[in-house]
Amino acid sequence: MSIQMGDTVPSATFKIMGKEGPENITTDDIFIGKKVVLFAVPGAFTPGCTVTHLPGFVVNADKIKAKGVDTIACMAVNDAFVMSAWGKSQNADELLMLADGNAEFAEALGLTMDASGFGMGKRSKRFAMIVENGNVSYLAVEPAGGIDVSSAENILAQL
Prior knowledge:
Elements: E1 13-18, E2 21-26, H1 27-31, E3 35-41, H2 47-59, H3 61-66, E4 71-76, H4 80-89, E5 95-99, H5 104-109, E6 112-114, E7 122-124, E8 127-132, E9 135-141, H6 152-158
Parallel strand pairs: 3-4, 4-5
Antiparallel strand pairs: 1-2, 3-8, 6-7, 8-9
């Protein structure tokens, strides 16, 4: 069963790129005492994620933060090196690029998919959520192939 609105975000540890290499960051670090928009993509540098999904959050970061959002986080089942490089290539300086390298957080949310047919193994479904002090206040999970309900524009309308 997947996470629902009103649920508490499960505990997990992500990797982010620090000045000296990959560093840990926990869900408590990210969500407790904050209003966060988290969106997840099946993979960094993949076409839909790079051309449509991530750019919407980059372009709308100021508008989203103006609605009281402390952090905009992008998550994928990739490593911290890939997430950092992707963020830099997309000018995503205002976003927290989270590596869920082993899909542990995506699994805890119940939002994984099998992308083995594309040679990608287990991945996160495409989704976006608004989390307030660790509790999910809004959740939008895309149907296969979609980039609509989890778009920056839709999330902005929900804030």
